[in-house]
Design brief:
Blueprint: H1 3-16, E1 21-25, H2 28-39, E2 43-52, E3 57-65, E4 67-68, E5 71-72, E6 77-79, E7 88-89, E8 103-108, E9 111-114, H3 115-121, E10 125-131
Antiparallel strand pairs: 1-3, 2-3, 4-5, 6-10, 7-10, 8-9, 8-10
Length: about 130
């Protein structure tokens, strides 16, 4: 199961169906990924909540999607490194997306970061996804 891929699909489908918010099951990696999306302007708000089920409480992330005059801010997102095929890049191999208009998100030894931050710190890592 690819939980990060599922999260990206939920966000993509939320934008396509013009939803205001989407709900994603919680994990620390998803929370950090959502924080990067919010910092870069692709999401308005990220909230960590608890959803009560029959026997227990389950943590969820509520993501508020951002639109510009009714059109989605995020036009595309693609999962690069998958559970069946991991993709690693060094700091000099990380490519820009759409000439710098998009971003690449990397999982580095210092945590998740964008390609710009990784370039400044001279870090490489696993390419999680690209966003434009």
């Amino acid at each position: 199961m690819d939980t990060i891929g599922d999260m990206l699909t939920i966000i993509r489908n939320g934008y396509l169906s013009k939803k205001k918010t989407v709900v994603v099951p919680f994990s620390r990696m998803k929370k950090e990924l959502a924080r990067i999306f919010q910092k870069e302007g692709y999401l308005d708000q990220v909230q960590e909540n608890e959803k009560k089920t029959r026997n227990s409480k389950v943590k969820i992330l509520t993501l508020t999607l951002r639109y510009n005059d009714g059109s989605p801010v995020l036009s595309g997102v693609k999962r690069v490194s998958k559970p069946g095929r991991r993709v690693y890049k060094g700091n000099d191999e990380v490519l820009r997306v759409l000439g710098g208009m998009g971003l690449t998100i990397l999982s580095t030894p210092q945590g998740l970061m964008t390609n710009k931050e990784a370039k400044k710190k001279a870090l490489g890592g696993e390419v999680v996804c690209i966003v434009w």
